[in-house]
Amino acid sequence: MPRKTLLITRPDHDITTSYCFHWSQEIIVAARRRGIRVIDLYGKRANKKEVEEIIKTQNPNLTFFNGHGTEAMICGHKDEPLIVAGENDDLLKFKIVYSIACDSAMGLGPRCVRSGAKAFIGYENVFIFIMDANKTHNPTSDDISKPFFESSNQVPFSLIKDNTAGEAVSKSKETFGKWITYYRTHDLIESPQILPFLIWDRESLVVHGDRESRFV
């Protein structure tokens, strides 16, 4: 049986991408522990040339894109377009895609599915998270950002544990829900700021394509 392969892009050129870069490290560790081959395109390697070459030659079964985006594209290092609707979205044919890139599930997601992707999981609006300005040097120590990334990371965690695309989204939404309940029931100074964005992200998360597809 062919070995499962995960391609992950992790640009790291501003505060937002730095948080995604660091919080997604735990996905890499978990995947490797399960014997999954991980191709980690981090920093400058998160560029269009390398992404296209890896997909064409290594045929990863699951792709996890971190970075900025629009309705029509997923971006990488210094916001270079990596996957663009109508240009190279067919590269994701037969794959499960998870994209944190803002808005990418709105237009690019359905387009990728029409081009043959098994499933495209992502956000139909801007993925928003709150951070502690005193912790930006060490994002994973930032308890203010933790609820957002712990919830979002349930998607790839679930997929590498052989859950379906639909189950992965459900588990992520459940985790968002647990944090929403926590901040609603605890009188914390940050609750009014965090709550609306946790709800926003939960409602923005969708799956296009085959909800029963698995990372195989």
**Stretches with pLDDT under 50, minimum 5 residues:** none
* Rg estimate, integer Å: 16 Å
Class per helix and strand makeup = alpha/beta
Overall average pLDDT: 96
- Tell me the number of helical segments per DSSP (H or I, 4 or more residues long): 8
Report, as a whole number of angstroms, the end-to-end distance.
9 Å
Please summarize the sheet with the most strands: 6 strands, mixed
The largest sheet has its strands arranged as: 2-1-3-7-8-9
Question: How would the global form be characterised?
Answer: globular
CATH class group: Alpha Beta
Q: Gist?
A:
With 216 residues, this protein is of the alpha/beta class.
Task: Give the key terms.
single chain, 3-stranded antiparallel sheet, 8 helices
Describe the overall structure.
With 216 residues, the chain is α/β, with parallel strands linked by helices. It has one domain: Rossmann fold, CATH 3.40.50. It is built from 8 helices and 9 strands. It has helices at 15-23, 25-33, 48-58, 108-114, 146-152, 154-160, 165-185, 191-204, and strands spanning 5-10, 37-42, 62-65, 69-70, 73-75, 81-84, 96-99, 119-123, 205-209. The strands form 2 sheets. A 6-stranded mixed β-sheet has the order 2-1-3-7-8-9, with helices on both faces. It is globular and about 50 Å long. The model has no long low-confidence stretch (mean pLDDT 96).
